[in-house]
């Protein structure tokens, strides 16, 4: 079959044409990989072929060697390294280098992708000798700018892929790094055409992460910074943008090296921002965003060291926090006025997902405030005071945005006067003639209640709520959504704790509760509810109001809110003949209704019982009608909340609910749904206790199936392991029939935590989570069996040896977090209390590893200390005996 036509056929919309072509390519990839890749490389390099066919060949070639999914990518790269023979590899690489020199820009660009893919695989392994020599020659010595662009693109792809695939501690050999940088610096020269400079600047951006040794050398660093700064003056907007992007990357990776260049970078970025709304200006702002991020982290490090005394008492050679140069603070007088000026460049009729200079300025101002905290106030107060009531709506909105943007930084004490002075204008702004002023006023009020509610006197709440009720009904969905955000924060538990209540049965929300809930539930029904996330914002605000409501609001929740929610959920099942978009919106609505029903259930406690039958009927209907993940997730949580409140009374629903529970547990493809379904098993265990036992066999069977299935996400499995403990704790001795298989699987899981890469933060977090779950399972089993005096079943070497190995590994692991240590100490105490002398020799309660668990006890919370004290007492009694 002609490879060109096969590739074209594989893109056909006609399945009768597409399917045979795809089958042919798939079979060739499985059985004749080397020949397939060779044919593809010849097709890509053949100058007599059509451009489209050459591109398809190159992309197919690339995609046989790499993929987006990490596991698939590793498999394909290993296949390239081990399956394709050296001679064929040599021919393929020769062909793609030939294609890289094509006079056809698209063929050359496609060849660049293939060169980048293979180069990133082979260069770290010391393979493909001569690649970088060839690429450097193309850039420096060829007279063809099309070839220069393709070659620099290839270097960019190599650098980009290397960043993805290289692990901690891995480095590109210095010789290769030097050659890459030499080619890039030559390509970015000011006398090169714009397309060449753009490709070089892109490659430079991608290479900065692994040229650290070059950046450590002053001369080479100066050269790199010089070519970047020169590129910011390029008249081509694309090159200019990419050069400023490089500056932002340098700020992130090499903050400690910026000092000799900061004056120049200051001038370049501020000049670019002043020039207007070019794409480069966004990247110039991003430079300051990056500086803010870096300095916030460094200042936090310094504060932590000072708090723990590490700065004064560190041992010789111990590394302290990084040095902060306070670039942002030193630039406030010039930077802040520029950012507030940007706030006046609003774009009317923009949507929430758009991005413009005013929004970029507000984001940067917020980060500046977070960095310098109270120090920003003198540079912003005058702008706000002068403009918040100006006749020009742009100035009113900009002043309000400036105020809202800085609220993340200063303390409430420093902001007290400013908040008090601005509050009347924010309330007034909710009824402004311009929708953008109303929108920003509502958002700013929300930020005030989120961060500085203590600055708002209780006696002013009435006028604030009245204005918010008006804003909730605003015809603009964006304004109404921001008002929902403000109500949500007004009703948060943080605020509730600070505003005094007249009696235990009421609180500050009670006078406003009926009006706010009624209005929000009306807003949730608006036909424009899908705009600006309005419907979700309304239900989230209702949830917060219900959560924080005082007891005197429970009657309204029970008699009005819950019946209305049930009616709305019932109505969703009566809609038919919907488009896919309408179905998605319907499922989202069902998800929101289930979530609010869950919140009401938690609030009403056992008073939810009169609605339980109808609620379960509708929740089961959600499961029955479709498999939409978010709706099922919320429905499962609502079932769990109902079981928690009804306790044994939930048993009557199990015959109808169980099949949907099992389906959720099997639905490991939607890991969030599966995790929530596992959580429901825990809720049912606590609610039904021993009455759950008849339903446990299929539950445990599915648990074991998921644990053994390599396709199940690693995020799911810890939840399953912990749930064994929930079940065992509640069904007691009846867990005996699951004991052997459970203890075996726990032992296997424990062994998987013994060796891991502690340099990867995600892996450390995962191992701690997994260990917590294993310990929870062991603890539940010990306590559950002990309730029926069956703990002796655990006294078997096959059970105890992996358990002890886990406990010892945890005690010796410096990365074990407090949650793991707390559970370990508690389990040791339970073993000593419930099994005592029967396991003393196996566990070795007096061994050093047990004592090692207590070494950092002063750093832990009170609960951990109490558990440690309990365990000490248990072990001391054993020693005395």
UniProtKB/TrEMBL annotation:
Organism: Nannochloropsis salina CCMP1776
InterPro entries linked to this entry: ARM-like, ARM-type_fold, IMB1_TNPO1-like_TPR, Importin-beta_N, Importin_beta
Gene Ontology BP terms: protein import into nucleus
Pfam families per record: HEAT_EZ (PF13513), IBN_N (PF03810), TPR_IMB1 (PF25574)
Domain Importin N-terminal: 21-102
Gene Ontology CC terms, in alphabetical order: cytoplasm
Highest taxon in the source lineage: Eukaryota
A molecular function GO annotation: small GTPase binding
Protein name: Importin N-terminal domain-containing protein
Localization per record: Cytoplasm
Sequence similarity: Belongs to the importin beta family. Importin beta-1 subfamily.
SUPFAM superfamilies, per the entry: ARM repeat
Record's keyword terms, sorted: Cytoplasm, Protein transport, Repeat, Transport
